[in-house]
From TrEMBL:
Residues annotated as domain Tail sheath protein C-terminal: 175-276
InterPro entries reported for this sequence: Phage_sheath_subtilisin, Tail_sheath_C, Tail_sheath_structural
Tail sheath protein subtilisin-like domain segment(s): 86-173
Name the record gives this protein: Major tail sheath protein
Originating organism: Yersinia intermedia
Signal sequence, start to end: none
Family named by the database record: Belongs to the myoviridae tail sheath protein family.
Length: 289
């Protein structure tokens, strides 16, 4: 019954205004395309996405040929993420089938997302199950004249050996300096999906000032949460009068602006060492105390 309809009596009208909680989208999910001629066709039908909740158990039905079983084992060495697999037919030539060994990277990325967060880059985290790499990469923590440093300077992440093997390098291949680091790109993607998916509730509601306020306050609350958890340096949300004039508003369009500052990785740490005699100034006092 509408509030404007005649009614002789008492009625309760539910008011559902206010901010809504925003849930961050899940990122610890792996998706890959693999081959295997002898995999269990029931569990891994050809050309069909399959959701795996236990990659280690699924690897037992992945067969012995192709890349499927090895990829699942490589992921399970790092963590046990939700994994979506599409099994495809083996190529007629090796070139059609061979791919870079990215499964351990995917598994490690999912592990970092789960254990630390998407704001942490892939670099300097031990990779389980790696016993060697195909090319020698010279690396030294205090020496810039190394293979690893040269690769990193060209925005290429490599594997180094230090207490096992670990990826070394936090930069992406983006031409935009704003997204120079891998975790900057991930932060942007996670925020975009999180904010968009969290506001379906607002679509088609009456476009009133209170609705705009609820959206803004909800995003601000999410920014405060992400800041307190260390996922962001900070962020804010606001209403811009310049773009929200009467024309877009009467067309049912509301522009909401927000910004954020991602957490930069500590890539270069210059420690400035000095020798001094100032700590001898209280030597006598220490002796006589």
């Amino acid at each position: 019954m509408s509030a404007t309809d005649y009614h002789h009596g008492v009625r309760v009208i539910e008011i559902s205004e206010g901010t809504r909680p925003i849930r961050t989208v899940s990122t610890a999910v792996v998706g890959m395309v693999c081959t295997s001629d002898d995999a269990d066709a029931t569990l891994f039908p050809l050309n069909t996405p399959v959701l795996l909740t236990d990659v280690l158990a699924a690897s037992g039905k992945a067969g012995a040929t192709g890349t499927l079983a090895h990829s699942l084992d490589a992921i399970s060495d790092q963590t046990k993420p939700l994994t979506v697999v599409v099994r495809v037919a083996q190529g007629e030539t090796e070139a059609e089938t061979t791919a870079f060994a990215t499964a351990r990277t995917l598994g490690l990325r999912a592990k970092i997302d789960n254990d630390t967060g998407w704001h942490k880059s892939l670099s300097n985290v031990g990779v389980n199950g790696v016993t060697g790499i195909s090319a020698d990469v010279f690396w030294d923590l205090q020496n810039s004249a190394t293979d690893a440093n040269l690769l990193n300077s060209k925005d290429v992440t490599t594997l180094i050996r230090k207490d096992g093997y670990r990826f070394w390098g936090s930069r992406s291949c983006s031409h935009d300096p704003l997204f120079a680091f891998e975790n900057y790109t991930r932060t942007a993607q996670v925020l975009a999906d999180t904010m968009a998916e969290a506001h379906m509730w607002a679509n088609d509601k009456p476009l009133t000032p209170s609705l705009a306020k609820d959206i803004i306050e909800g995003i601000r609350a999410k920014m405060r949460e992400l800041k307190s958890l260390g996922y962001l340096i900070n962020g804010d949300c606001w209403y811009d009068d310049n773009v929200n004039d009467k024309n877009p508003l009467k067309a049912g369009r509301l522009f909401i602006d927000y910004d954020y500052t991602p957490v930069p990785p500590l890539e270069d740490l210059p420690l400035r060492q000095r020798i001094t005699d100032r700590h001898l100034a209280d030597f006598a006092a220490a002796v006589n105390s």
